[in-house]
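Sequence only, no structure available. Ideas?
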Amino acid sequence: MKSTIRDVAKYANVSISTVSRVMNAPDTVVEEKRVKVLEAIEVLQYQPNGFARGLIYKKSDTLGVMIPDIENPYYAGLIRGMQDAAVMLNHSLMICNTDRDKKRTIAYVQTFFEKQVDGIIFTSDSLHEEYYEEMQRYRLPFVLASTNAPEYDIPSVDIDDEQGAYEAVKHLIELGHRRIGMISFPLGHTISGEPRYAGYKKALLEFGIVHNTDEIEFAEHRFEHAYEASERLFARCSELTAIFAASDEFAMGVISYLRDHGKSVPDRMSVIGFDNIRMAQMFIPKLTTIDQPTYDIGYRSVEKLHELITNGEVAVLREKLPHQLVIRESTRMI
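Reply:
I predicted one. Tokens follow.
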């Protein structure tokens, strides 16, 4: 049977905390006890592990990460940034897919507590009151990545969604488009739905274009939902010349619908996305889009959580990273 830290302590006739100090800070232990512990480790062939150290210090060096949809390509860059920061700061990640399901999300918080994670990164979803209360109940430090919750003093890292959407629609207007539709996330159900819709309306208003609510259609989070929403939108609004899609995956759904119905992009319709996922430059046509620094958001969220765990507070509560318009092939002047 594999030896435990308790076995070592018993063999050396010392406390478990003394064994832990010998492993992690040997200079703090008197020589006599240090020799006994090292001898016990050798005799018992004890292999210390992170969980054992966690029992002593109440610290596992593990961070829990909640992802709404692991299949969504947006999260690849986000997770890569988190992973690189975690390696740099000597943390490991435990990643869970919530599917935006409340019961599952709350169950994961409980699991994270049981697994002794040091903190949680909550990504890209609305921070419902039930989630906040659950994390507060377990006293787990947490940070929001690619989302925010202005009603709570919770550290967050994201971008200015409204301004990004405004710049996307402004680009279409500057190309000469005046009939601009939108495929939007459901308002009130996602954290970026409202601000991206607000940015769309703001650009139209600024340039004196009448905002027509018929020219917007809502979809959930996937390509196929955007494809179906495009069918509904173009059935009502056949005179549209451009579409602002609330995500790159939505933009791909729109373009696929148009292609299937004999309308080429950008010759007969301009389409702009949001996110700049890796596939945006591989898709045909290559997507014009708003670039979110997903890698940087992921990286900074881990750094911010590390700061919160270490210091009990962060220097910057709500951090907004810069975005930029990336012009490719899916938009053109009319």
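The radius of gyration is 25 Å.
Hope that gets you unstuck.
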